[in-house]
TrEMBL record:
Pathway: Cofactor biosynthesis; adenosylcobalamin biosynthesis. This is Precorrin-4 C(11)-methyltransferase. Its EC number is 2.1.1.133. It comes from the Bacteria. InterPro entries: 4pyrrol_Mease, 4pyrrol_Methylase_sf, 4pyrrole_Mease_sub1, 4pyrrole_Mease_sub2, Cbl_synth_CobM/CibF, Siro_Cobalamin_biosynth, Uropor_MeTrfase_CS. Keywords: Cobalamin biosynthesis, Methyltransferase, S-adenosyl-L-methionine, Transferase. NCBIfam families: cobM_cbiF. Residues 2-207 form the Tetrapyrrole methylase domain. One of its GO terms (molecular function) is precorrin-4 C11-methyltransferase activity. The keyword S-adenosyl-L-methionine applies. Pfam families: TP_methylase. Gene3D superfamilies: Cobalt-precorrin-4 Transmethylase, Domain 1, Methyltransferase, Cobalt-precorrin-4 Transmethylase, Domain 2. CDD domains: Precorrin-4_C11-MT.
Length: 257
């Protein structure tokens, strides 16, 4: 018996992996994060399966569902939003399962920061402009360690993807303005990949107003980066015909000399 922690993807039921979908289809117990994972994602569960939303459960209750399934020798599909490596409570849950000697495995998923980039049609790394992505959040009820404060992260000028922060947009913008000019590009994607998806583009000067006017309060990704505006970047070396790599010889070496 195993508890499979499955990344459900960002919302679109087609954005779960094939592996995750097959497990949802065959596990007799399906426990999904009803607050963020649409019911359609788990609609592929077997009609005899016990399908439960963990929306109103605390950690003890979630562990109790796993323990009960374990005692019945039934596999569990624990389906959570996006990917399990980011703000998922995987660590605290698996620590409890280890104490109970219950086996578990993780199946990765498409994270909402990736779905948000896709919605924007945006590569988050541009050759020579930006080669780093920082995934973080504003400090709120869950404090962020001081060394990771937004101001210090912003100083890298890497692409910043902020989870769980939209309700703190005023504070986020205030802190970013301490490092960036008012015209620094920022975008908000609400419910990426859901039918209700909305995209707001702006700058530090106007994004707060736009987000508040749109009434966006939850399930949104904030992306802060010069890549959102940059059109003047060099082609990458990957497809450059003067550049050799493991899979391709340079064709036009002289042009490179
Ligand atoms: N593990 C998840 C993140 C869970 S934390 C992942 O990999 O995506 C929940 C936060 O994720 C939300 O506050 C929001 O910032 C973001 N989020 C989740 N689904 C989203 C979606 N469809 N569109 C935009 N942001 C989303």
């Amino acid at each position: 018996m195993t508890v499979y922690f499955i990344g459900a993807g960002p919302g679109d039921p087609d954005l779960i992996t094939v592996k995750g979908a097959k497990l949802v289809e065959r596990c007799p117990v399906v426990l999904y994060t009803g607050s963020l994972v649409p019911a359609e994602v788990v609609a592929r569960a077997n009609e005899d399966a016990l399908v439960l939303s963990s929306e109103a459960m605390d950690l003890d209750e979630i562990v109790a569902v796993c323990k009960q399934a374990h005692d019945n020798n039934q596999d569990v599909a624990r389906v959570q939003t996006g990917d399990l490596s980011i703000y998922s409570s995987l660590a605290e849950t698996t620590r409890r399962l280890d104490d109970l000697d219950i086996d578990w495995q993780v199946v990765p998923g498409v994270s909402s920061f990736q779905a948000s980039a896709a919605a924007l049609g945006q590569e988050l790394t541009l050759p020579e402009v930006c080669q780093t992505i920082i995934l973080s959040r504003a400090s709120g009820r869950t404090p962020v360690p001081d060394k990771e404060n937004l101001k210090s992260l912003a100083k890298h000028e890497a692409t910043l993807c902020l989870f769980l922060s939209i309700s703190l947009i005023r504070k986020v913008v205030r802190e970013l303005k301490e490092v960036y000019s008012d015209d620094w590009p920022i975008a908000v994607v609400e419910k990426a990949s859901h039918p209700e998806q909305r995209i707001i583009r702006g700058t530090l000067a106007d994004i707060t107003e736009k987000v508040e006017a749109a009434g966006i309060k939850a399930t949104a990704m904030i992306i802060v980066s010069k890549v959102l505006q940059e059109k003047d970047f060099n082609d990458s070396k990957l497809y450059d015909n003067t550049f050799s790599h493991g899979f391709r010889r340079a064709r036009n070496v002289e042009a490179n000399s």
